[in-house]
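quick q for whoever's on today - can somebody do inverse folding on this one?? i tried earlier but teh output was garbage lol. tokens:
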């Protein structure tokens, strides 16, 4: 393969059989269970990187279980993780602290393109009689269980739509061949072309367990603030670098 041919084909690794295709990445019937809870503000301060800022009056975490049965290029998978409400230069959004999912393509694509902090695990989101249930297993160890009354009470669709449009923040780290950081950036991305098909709120509960390599319990649950169930179609937009830590 000549050099110019290689560069024309180069998009992602492996060169001749990339782990994921080029975008756009469209999601149909993407389903969320989001349990917002109050946690220890000192723990948040230790984890959220500058120049992102916390609202000290609202030390919240959003624990998410997301079911994606139909996603362009990535297929059918589920993920789970923690998003921390933050602001950047006065714009409120969410910083993705950790994510766990069960599909190689979006793990590789999420890390390489945007900088999503994705690791391999086994999340699920399902209905058990009258309860929406999200679980996360790391190996054979259960580390998170979230529950909510199923379609308990309609939510404000305009407010849900606005929450999905808010900016999202990630730390993208790509190592050099010598092991040092070659890329270390703060990335912003947005969800676009959002169609909220339904949204509900209701009673919720969240149980987190300590694990050395999947430390979701590092941000302890002090008080449940809300539980929201969302069904939507949307596109995962590509990102832009808003801060370069190495410059």
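ok took a stab at it. sequence:
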């Amino acid at each position: 393969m000549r050099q110019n041919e290689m560069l024309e084909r180069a998009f992602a690794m492996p060169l001749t059989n990339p782990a994921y295709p080029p975008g756009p990445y469209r999601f149909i019937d993407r389903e969320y269970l989001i349990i917002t809870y109050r946690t220890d503000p000192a723990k948040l301060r230790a984890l959220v990187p500058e120049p992102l800022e916390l609202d000290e009056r609202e030390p919240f975490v959003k624990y998410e279980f997301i079911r994606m049965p139909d996603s362009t290029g990535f297929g059918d998978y589920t993920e789970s993780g923690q998003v921390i409400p933050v602001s950047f230069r006065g714009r409120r959004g969410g910083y993705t602290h950790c994510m766990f999912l069960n599909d190689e393509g979006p793990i590789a694509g999420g890390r390489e393109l945007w900088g999503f902090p994705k690791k391999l695990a086994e999340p699920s989101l399902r209905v058990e009689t009258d309860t929406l249930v999200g679980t996360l297993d790391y190996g054979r160890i259960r580390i998170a269980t979230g529950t909510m009354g199923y379609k308990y009470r309609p939510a404000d669709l305009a407010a849900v739509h606005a929450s999905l449009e808010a900016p999202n923040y990630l730390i993208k780290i790509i190592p050099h061949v010598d092991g040092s950081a070659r890329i270390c950036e703060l990335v912003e991305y947005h969800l676009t072309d959002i169609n909220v098909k339904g949204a509900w709120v209701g009673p919720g509960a969240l149980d987190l367990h300590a694990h050395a390599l999947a430390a979701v319990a590092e941000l302890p649950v002090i008080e449940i603030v809300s539980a929201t169930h969302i069904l939507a179609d949307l596109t995962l937009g590509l990102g832009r670098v808003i801060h370069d830590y190495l410059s």
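fwiw Residues 10 and 16 are 8 Å apart (CA to CA). also Residues 104-114 form the longest helix (11 residues). so keep that in mind when u check it
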